[in-house]
Amino acid sequence: MTKRVILAMSVCLFGLAAMAEEPQWLKDARAREGKPGKAVELRSKDKWFRAKVPAKVTDPIEKLEGSYTVSLDIGSEQPTYCEVVPDGFDMADMARRSLELMMEQIEKSQGKVELRALESTDAGVWGNVPYLQAQWIYRVNDGKAQRIGGLKQVSMEKDGQGIYCLHVDLGYTRSFTAVARAFAETFTSTSPVPAPYYKEIAVATLNGMKIGITMSTLERDEEGDTKAEESTSMLIPGASGALHSKDAIHQQWIRPDASLINATHFIASDGVLKTSLGLTLEDGAWIVKGDLDGKEFSQTLKADVPPGTWVAQALALRKLLATDNPVGAEHSMQQWAADDPARLTNAKTKVLARVGDKQFKGMLTAGEMTANATIDKATGMFAVVEISERGQKVTIERVYLDGSF
Q1: What b/e string do you get for 271-310 counting C-beta neighbours within 10 Å, with b at 16 or more?
Q2: What is the pTM of this model?
Q3: C-alpha to C-alpha distance for 189 and 212, rounded to whole angstroms
Q4: pLDDT tens figures, 85-136
Q5: 3-class SS at 233?
Q6: CA distance 266 to 15
Q7: Which of 150, 184, 223, 249 is geometrically suited to a Cys-Cys bond with 129, CB 3.0 to 4.6 A?
Q8: 258/261 Cα distance (integer angstroms)
Q9: If you compute the radius of gyration of the chain from its CA atoms, what whole number of angstroms results?
Q10: Among candidate residues 308, 318, 314, the one with its CA nearest the CA of residue 345
C-alpha cells in the first residue's frame, strides 16, 4: 500500500433511509434463507470456466456478447445471476452500472421506483479474491399499491477476470453471499493471467463504512523488468440513493534496481475516463502526455532527480527500519502523483515509534496530505494508513499479502 492510493479521497456519506421499528412482515422477509446444499460443479458450455457453488444451475452457460451469464437457484422465487467477464472490468463501475440497469428492469416489471436507499456496503477478500458488496432497499408503486423490495450485489476480480453477482430479494442474504464467495474461491478458467510474484490487498473504510479496495501487484517480464501496478476501486454513496464509482490504475515499469522506466495513470469516475496520462523519459527529460479532464495535456517535469517508485520507497524504508534506532529518522522521495501530474510530489515518511518487533508508527506527508501509518519492518510497506480531514476519517488496512520482493 502506498501514499498514492489514499490521495484525493474526499467523499461524503448520506443518511440511509431507515425505519425506527420495522414491521414484522419486513423482518420476516429479511430473515428468509435457502437450505444449505452440497456444492455443485458448474461449467460453461465451451468449457472455458468452471466453479463449485451451493446452488442449482437453471440454464445452460453460454458466452454471449463477450461474457457468460450464470442463473442459480438459491431457494428464492428470484434466481441469483452471476456474470463472468473474461477481459475483466472496473469493479466499482460494474456495480454502479449494473445497479442502474437493474432498477430500470424493476420499474418495467414491478412499477415506478419511488425511493431507493443504500443499506450497507462491504469490501474485503475471499481467499485471494478482492470484492465490493452493496445491499439496497427500494419502494415501487404500480398504481395500485406500494411494495418494498431489496437488491444485493457483489463485484469481484480473479486472475484477470471479472465476476459479478446480484439477487433481487429482501431475504436470502447469507445464501447469496455463500454462493458468491464459493464462486470466487473455486472459479478457474483455461486462460488466467500469470500470477504476480507479489500481491497485497487493502480495504478502504470511510467513517466506519467499508467502501473500497486497493491492490498492489508485481509481475516480472522475460527481460527481468517489473510491472508494478496499483489499482483502486471505490463505491461512493450519493444523495437520493445514487451510487458513484471511482476506479484507478497506476502502473510503473521498473528495472531490477527499482528505478523507473515509465509510468501511467488511468482514473475513471462513474465510468468516464477523467485521467489518461503517461510519463516517459525523452532526450534526458521526463515528459507527461495524455488527456486530463477531457483536454490534451503535455508537460515537461522540472526535476533534479528522476521520479521514484513505490518499490524503491519500500526498499529504502526496510533499510531505514533495520538500523539500531530508526525512531525520528525520515525518508523522502520525489514521486509522480495523479492528483498533481504537472510536477513531482515530495513524499516523506517520518518514523515516530516502535510497535513491537515487527512494526513502526510513522507519519506520511505528500503535498497537502498528512496521514498516520503503521509500517512493516520486513516489507517496508504500509499495513495501515489513517487520514482525518474535515470531520471524516479514512482508513486503509491491508487484509491480504502474498509473495515478496
Answers
A1: eeebbebebeeeeeebebebebeeeeeebebeeeeebbbb
A2: 0.91
A3: 26
A4: 999 999 999 999 999 999 999 999 999 999 999 999 999 999 999 999 999 9
A5: strand
A6: 31
A7: 184
A8: 9
A9: 23
A10: 308
